[in-house]
Amino acid sequence: MDLSYGAEAEVFRKQVRAFLAETWQPGERRKAELKEFIRAFRAKAVERGYLYRSVPKRYGGSEQPVDVIKAQVIREEFARARAPMEMGGNGINMAVPTLVEVGTDEQRELFIRKTLEGDYIWGQGYSEPGSGSDLASVRTKAELSPDGTKWVINGQKIWTSQGGAATHMFMLVRTEPDAPKHDGITYLLLDLNQPGVTRRPIRQMTGMEGDDTFYEFFFDNAETPVSWQVGERGKGWYVSRTTLKHERASIGSADGLGRQFSKLVDLAKEMGRIGDPLVRERLTQIEGFVLSHRYTSFRLFSCQAAGEDAGPVQLMMKLLLTEIGHQIALLAQELIGDEGLIEPAQAGARGLITQQRGPNKWLDQIMGSLGNSIAGGASNIQRNIIGERGLGLPRDLAMGGEK
Amino acid sequence: MRFHLTEEQSAIQDAVRGTLADVWPMERLHKFADSQIDDGTDCDPESWQALMALGIGALALPEADGGAGLGLLDAALVCEVVGEAAGPGPVIGQILAAIAVARSASAGARALLPAIASGEAVVALAMGSPLVACARGATLFLTDGPDGAIHLVEAAADVSIEPQTATDRSRPVSRVNFAAARAHVLFAGDDPMAQRLRDAALVLIAADSLGGAQKVTDMSVAYAKEREHFGQPIGRFQGLKHQLAHMALDVEPARALVWYAAYAWDAELPDATRAAAMAKAHLCDVYTSATRAAIAAHGGIGYTWEYGLNYWFRRSIANRAWLGSPSQHRARAAELAGW
Ligand SMILES: Cc1cc2nc3c(=O)[nH]c(=O)nc-3n(C[C@H](O)[C@H](O)[C@H](O)COP(=O)(O)OP(=O)(O)OC[C@H]3O[C@@H](n4cnc5c(N)ncnc54)[C@H](O)[C@@H]3O)c2cc1C
């Protein structure tokens, strides 16, 4: 085994570093000025082949051959320089890969570049009040207009992250009410700024409101062109399977977990508890899982670089990560003690500098870890996936039709 | 960058697995477990020779010493498979002794190297505790003095060995007193190799635990597919399915923790000592919880002697206590992190 990336990668690292030293100098820029600077910086990074590597050039990507080592070097160097990486969110992580894989040229032309540049923000329109884990039961329906050029949508979607800022939605709708549940779904793209769409924020348990929370959407004869349908009519379930894979990969970040763990150690120091043998025991116990996750990420990375299948362990990464999140939350709660009696100022709230947030800022993680174990496939669903697809145990009878 | 097994490494594991399937099936384990007190065997000669014939004693020896020149990682992969089978004999002691003696300047010990490499001399690991596994079958002991020095002691009349009724039936223990036995000093206590050998021992125990935890998980999954109740395989019941998923979730990601600790030892990385402590602590916890969960997943049959799950459960007790408990190693790891 060898965890060095090799001489070629180190030459590449030097190039990335030189690029960042030259190009990422935000200086004292703030607000609109900073935003413009970041946009220009990303454009240069794309030109150099550092960002949006899997997206074709003609749609605003850098169209690089698959090279997981280079991609990792880029992530490391950008993180070190605190330079902005690709835009986050469901648009980049889910809509774009889906369009790259199964979209029409027209759809790619219309949506990808604007999404990469941050002009289009996407909501993921999957969950409904009656459909979450049993996603294939979605009931929001779409019917063709009499002239056959438009889909007309009626129903409701819920828990849509970034729903306040979203300009568009990719969604699963029922188009074939008489077909078996997985075969009656179509994957549509929708412009959210139209009279047939009403949105409403749902306040989260964290207290978050406004732009920072998730939304529900009501569709009352909302319309979208038939040409905005992705994949075949009735095949939307299978189109959506491509996107969930992307989501899994984007949640499982070992570096982020490592940073969170070292902040937990800092918290123990800050609270004067680092000398407490019980705290040391809990910290190192959690670290055993954190490192397992980290080295398993290396393993997956190594398999991917070699073009080999890593096997069932891939299916475990989301649950592993969210279970560690629960453990971190419990220890953080112990450590902050009665600091936790006071609600922290909201993260990212305007005009607030982070220094003003004390140990009670861990309440974000203490609550957020719960959201992580629900969103993107609740933990019991992950357990089913590990048991059935990973260990080959017989399928749940209720889920016999799931694919 | 490479952080998964090569084909050769998988082939080594398959070879050891195949041999153990032949010489150490459940019937052998049962027979050995029941007979060891009466007939005085704590290292079954036939299965030991079969393992040694694979070159396990010489695996981590430099090629100059007639070995295969492989690393601790490869040794760990072998120990993992031995753990899977609840295998016989002091495999960890044997491998460590070969590593230690090959790097030592002691001429007396080095003269014993060919016999250690071939397995003709059986080496028990007698560090940290007077309770030593496979002591009666051993002709040599790898042990540590009070000052942390590493010694090799030849079995002789002045080494007293009192057999015990061992909890771990696959590797029975005796109470050993070296009294004034003559020792070859391999490394002084302040020699960095002394610490490295202790680290290596922890990594190999972690590897044995990984193999055992994987084995009982596999047994539980297989049983859940085949056992029917309420007219269906019990593996369809979600309560059980989720327990099995959690067993796998504990075991499979921990594999990379063992790999890393062994790799860190081989590459002499600055965090090698800490990685060994973390791996030993974590894998012994995993082994404990996996064996407990496996017995629960089997129902009544799991609680029998005959079915055999208890051999791994018992081995998990031994591995956990051996050379320090998870909490002791976590305390060290916290110290080593500078917290
Ligand atoms: C912070 C956050 C952000 C989200 N963002 C989005 C978004 O942007 N877009 C979007 O479409 N959705 C989003 N969701 C919704 C999320 O995908 C669903 O909440 C999730 O899939 C669970 O569905 P549900 O809420 O209907 O719960 P249910 O499916 O009703 O689950 C309730 C409980 O039952 C359990 N359960 C359900 N089925 C089974 C089964 N077969 N076996 C065992 N147990 C079962 C679940 O594990 C859970 O514990 C978000 C959720 C959260 C918390």
Give structural notes.
The complex is a heterodimer of chains A (403) and B (339). With 403 residues, chain A is of the alpha+beta class. In chain A, 44% of the residues lie in helices and 13% in strands. In chain A, the strands form two sheets. A four-stranded mixed β-sheet of chain A has the order 1-4-5-8. In chain A, a hairpin with a 5-residue loop joins β2 and β3. In chain A, α7 runs antiparallel to α8. The two termini of chain A are 37 Å apart. The relative contact order of chain A is 0.08. About 2% of the residues of chain A have low confidence. Chain B is an alpha+beta fold. Chain B folds into two domains: 181 residues, Orthogonal Bundle (Butyryl-Coa Dehydrogenase, subunit A, domain 1), CATH 1.10.540; 142 residues, Butyryl-CoA Dehydrogenase, subunit A, domain 3 (Up-down Bundle). A four-stranded mixed β-sheet of chain B has the order 1-3-4-7. In chain B, strands 2-6-5 form a three-stranded antiparallel β-sheet, with no helix packed on it. In chain B, strands 8-9 form a two-stranded antiparallel ribbon. Chain B is globular, with a radius of gyration of 20 Å. Classes of the chains: A alpha+beta (403), B alpha+beta (339). Chains A and B meet through α7, α8, α9 and α11 of A and α8, β9, α9, α10 and α12 of B. Bound molecules: flavin-adenine dinucleotide (FAD).
What distinguishing features does this structure have?
heterodimer, A: 403 residues, alpha+beta, four-stranded mixed sheet, four-stranded antiparallel sheet, 11 helices, B: 339 residues, Butyryl-Coa Dehydrogenase, subunit A, domain 1, Butyryl-CoA Dehydrogenase, subunit A, domain 3, 2 domains, three-stranded antiparallel sheet, 9 strands, 56% helix, binds flavin-adenine dinucleotide
